[in-house]
Amino acid sequence: MTLSNPGWPVHLEHGDVSVRPFRRSDAARWSQLRRANEAWLAPWEPGTGTTWHEAHSPAAFRAMLRGLKRSVKDGTSWPLAVCWQGQLAGGLTVGNIVRRAFGSAYAGYWIDRGHAGKGITATALAMVVDHALTVGRLHRIEVNIRPENGPSNRVAEKLGLRQEGLHKRYLYIDGDWRDHYGYAVTAEEIATERMIDRMARLARAESERGASKDPRQTSQ
């Protein structure tokens, strides 16, 4: 842990899901995943000014990592690898960290399509939010998601994040200024129930609701 970036470096694990800092040896795997997931990821991410293939080469990863290390040193971000059973499967960034009276940051994430639907992203985000709002000494984490991005909104729902509203024309993505739902959570909200426990509780409640449905009311 450093004075300029409390909570870093971050190494967390829950079941088969773990998060850790990115490292140079991730270059080939990161490039393979990102290039293979262009159709899955490109519609939701800001453009890079070059082709997707070029922007996600091993060399591009190493250049990106150098920039990320500078932001870590400045105390403004946590760039994290999301792993499933020890293998890189996605990424999660706590970025735009502002200390003092603001005490806030945003979280953004991506996951390989082949690993989607396993609860990996929700688990990783829950662990990181818990860490950021305690050991990391932040007060508030924001997550901003396009309304059309069903899987990402589902992650926020699994964690019970508070939806604060719709940010009109919030970010320039895929050729236009796109609206985003704004979600947030504060340190006070996890004081009595950590996010990882809330996620498990909400999953149990959803399972119980599904089990109690009258089968005669199930749509065919």
Mean pLDDT: 93
Q: Indicate the percent of residues in helices.
A: 25-40%
CATH topology: Aminopeptidase
- Number of strand segments: 8
Largest sheet: 8 strands, mixed
Strand content: 25-35%
Strand order in the sheet with the most strands? 1-2-3-4-5-6-8-7
* Topology pattern, helix = H, strand = E: EEHHHHEEEHEHEEH
Number of domains: 1
Reading off the top of the CATH hierarchy, the class is best stated as Alpha Beta
Question: What would you report as the Rg, rounded to the nearest angstrom?
Answer: 18 Å
Give the low-confidence spans. none
| Number of helices, counting only DSSP H or I runs of 4 residues or more | 7
Q: Write out the CATH superfamily name.
A: Gcn5-related N-acetyltransferase (GNAT)
Coarse shape: globular
Q: Could you describe the 3D structure shown?
A:
- With 220 residues, the chain is α+β, with helices and mostly antiparallel strands.
- 35% of the residues lie in helices and 29% in strands.
- The chain has one domain (12-212): Gcn5-related N-acetyltransferase (GNAT) (Aminopeptidase).
- The protein is built from seven helices and eight strands.
- Helix 1 (27-36) packs across helix 4 (58-74) and helix 5 (120-132) crosses helix 6 (150-159).
- The termini are far apart.
- The mean pLDDT is 93.
